[in-house]
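Fill in residues.
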């Protein structure tokens, strides 16, 4: 949540920062701002609204400089106003600061600063931090350990801070320098030619450099035109490790698509190929993972799995639970990360803990990981963003390798999580009771997933036409059973988050214990009704809806015949292995939600009130 960019170099900082903000806009888009330093002058422009709004405002002024910071906001403290937008400038005019995170003890600090005569123009926690830096700067006169006074006053301030932050700070007395720091909010440093860029994530800097340093919690980066230095809150010097980003700027661009969500839906066959590449054993009977850091023997001895995640990733965990229990016969528990972290649930000692997170920065998932580690459990992460906080703090893990996911509504990250979940189930099953030949069959089925997904995507024109007919409704139910119950939850989440239609996901048979009261001509139901052992039971549930005049959109497998007149619309997906079915079944609900949202004129990639990665509680 919130995107931050800082630039020190020889080029025009304004253009680079505005481009970076545009790419980070998916992290928050309530308001945006920029501050560029020219000598001892701070030039500030900030506006409520989108980055385009800010760019128009900037174009009206002569704003130049080779050092600057910019921010795109997702409001936490204080409404969406120009005054609450970042950067914030200290009341003595010496510092400008951008911030991603929440300062929990800001009220006490604000009371203290007010008594000292500091003035505030906004309702934000960030402005308090900025003024506290100014306060320490005014007090601090000495240089410590060769570090500049600028760095020292930021360090001193951060020692008093409770909460989370990724920050970048300018100081009028240190032209061409930026100080950045992080705690539980992401911050990376791009190391370019004669330039350094601080950013919340790689998309803001990948057009200028692929060399990055992933800052760790409690680290402070000091950028100057010629070099950068990293130290800790305790004043220890840190030797930086420079990593390479393994994707290019083209991967984060729209190309011929209208929205990132559309692009990412259609990228899924390729994304699945990437997620499975090199992950099958030479004998073709099981999965293999490079980064688990746990021996096959240790894996075999496990008695239980626990999965924690949020949102769409939580739905992927539910499908994984179904597949592990079905094929490996090991009990699995799935919890919302936000609940687990406070629930203090008893765990069996031979439990392996997994977290799933596309961004690797979701604060609740990170906190669940830390809580599990605190209790002595080994934690594995399924994660897409390389170098993310979750990837770094986990004991081992599996990268999704699907490239940047920009659309707020998760699509390709979801299906790759389903694929990896299915591979984990296979890996464990083969260590236990699954035979060699069943393993080979399972592997072949997973390898077919990209092609089957492509076939499901070919239904897009038909689904678009259905979407036009159903975009007018205000309520919808999504119903599915077994491994497709989580897909019903996912379908409902997808629809509500981008089209603002109220939608609920339920196990199909559970519908008659309450939700059926909603059914009428004005509440359609989307049914997952693939060919299966319980097909007839699903058909019975559909009849119950039909008897109450509820319109039905059925998603069924090719060659399956539904009773005449039961479904108002039928979408076919290819028949496939149980482990692949949820992946293929995701496609029609993603497309349906996407086309309905477009039909309703919604801002698909930037749905109201949401942000891509939720880094606040
Ligand atoms: O980055 P994460 O996978 O941890 O994100 C978890 C959720 O915030 C995310 O899946 C969210 O529910 C999506 N907007 C759903 O499309």
């Amino acid at each position: 949540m919130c995107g931050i960019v800082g630039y020190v170099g020889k080029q025009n900082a304004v253009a680079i920062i505005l481009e970076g903000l545009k790419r980070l806009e998916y992290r928050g888009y309530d308001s945006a701002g920029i501050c560029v330093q020219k000598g001892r002058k701070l030039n500030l422009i900030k506006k409520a609204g989108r980055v385009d709004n800010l760019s128009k405002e900037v174009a009206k002024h002569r704003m130049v400089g080779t050092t600057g910071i910019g921010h795109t906001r997702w409001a936490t403290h204080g409404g969406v106003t120009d005054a609450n937008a970042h950067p914030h400038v200290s009341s003595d005019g010496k510092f400008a600061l951008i911030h991603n995170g929440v300062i929990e003890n800001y009220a006490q600090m604000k009371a203290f600063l007010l008594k000292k005569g500091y003035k505030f123009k906004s309702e934000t926690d960030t402005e308090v931090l900025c003024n506290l830096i100014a306060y320490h700067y005014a007090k601090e006169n000495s240089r410590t350990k060769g570090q500049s006074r600028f760095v020292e006053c930021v360090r001193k301030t951060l020692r008093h801070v409770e909460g989370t932050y990724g920050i970048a700070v300018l100081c009028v007395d240190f032209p061409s320098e930026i100080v950045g720091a992080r705690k539980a909010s992401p911050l990376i440093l791009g190391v370019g030619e004669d330039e350094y860029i601080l950013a919340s994530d790689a998309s803001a800097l990948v057009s200028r450099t692929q060399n990055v340093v992933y800052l760790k919690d409690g680290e402070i980066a000091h950028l100057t035109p010629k070099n950068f230095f990293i130290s800790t809150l305790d004043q220890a010097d840190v030797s930086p490790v420079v990593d390479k980003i393994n994707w290019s700027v083209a991967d984060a661009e729209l190309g011929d698509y209208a929205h990132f969500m559309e692009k990412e839906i259609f990228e899924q066959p390729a994304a699945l190929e990437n997620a499975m590449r090199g992950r099958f054993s030479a004998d073709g009977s099981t999965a293999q993972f490079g980064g688990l850091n746990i021996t096959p023997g240790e894996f075999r001895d496990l008695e239980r799995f626990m999965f924690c995640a949020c949102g769409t990733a939580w739905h992927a965990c539910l499908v994984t639970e179904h597949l592990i229990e079905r094929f490996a016969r090991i009990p699995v528990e799935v919890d919302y990360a936000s609940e687990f972290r406070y629930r203090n649930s008893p765990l069996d000692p031979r439990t392996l803990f997994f977290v799933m997170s596309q961004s690797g920065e979701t604060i609740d998932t990170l906190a669940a990981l830390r809580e599990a580690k605190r209790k002595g459990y080994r934690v594995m992460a399924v994660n897409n963003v390389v170098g993310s906080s979750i990837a770094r703090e986990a004991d081992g893990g599996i990268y999704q390798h699907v490239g940047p996911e920009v659309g707020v509504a998760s699509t390709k990250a979801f299906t790759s999580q389903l694929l990896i979940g299915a591979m984990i189930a296979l890996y464990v099953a083969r260590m236990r009771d699954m035979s060699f030949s069943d393993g080979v069959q399972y592997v072949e089925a997973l390898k077919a997933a990209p092609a089957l997904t492509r076939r499901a995507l070919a239904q897009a024109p038909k689904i678009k036409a259905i979407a036009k007919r159903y975009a007018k409704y205000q309520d919808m139910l999504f119903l599915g059973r077994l491994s497709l119950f989580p897909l019903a939850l996912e379908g409902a989440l997808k629809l509500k988050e981008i089209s603002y239609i109220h939608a609920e996901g339920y196990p199909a048979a559970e519908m008659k214990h309450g939700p059926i009261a909603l059914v009428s001509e004005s509440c359609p139901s989307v049914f997952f009704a693939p060919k299966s052992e319980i097909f007839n039971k699903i058909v019975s549930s559909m009849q119950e809806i039909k008897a109450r005049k509820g319109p039905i959109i059925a998603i069924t497998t090719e060659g399956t015949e539904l009773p005449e007149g039961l479904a108002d619309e039928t979408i076919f997906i290819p028949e496939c292995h149980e482990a692949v079915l949820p992946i293929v079944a995701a496609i029609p609900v993603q497309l349906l939600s996407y086309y309905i949202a477009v039909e309703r004129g919604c801002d698909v990639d930037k749905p109201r009130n949401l942000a891509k990665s939720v880094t606040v509680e």
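The pocket of 5-amino-5-deoxy-1-O-phosphono-D-mannitol is lined by residues 310-313, 357-359, 362, 365, 408-410, 493, 497, 613-614 (CB under 6 Å).
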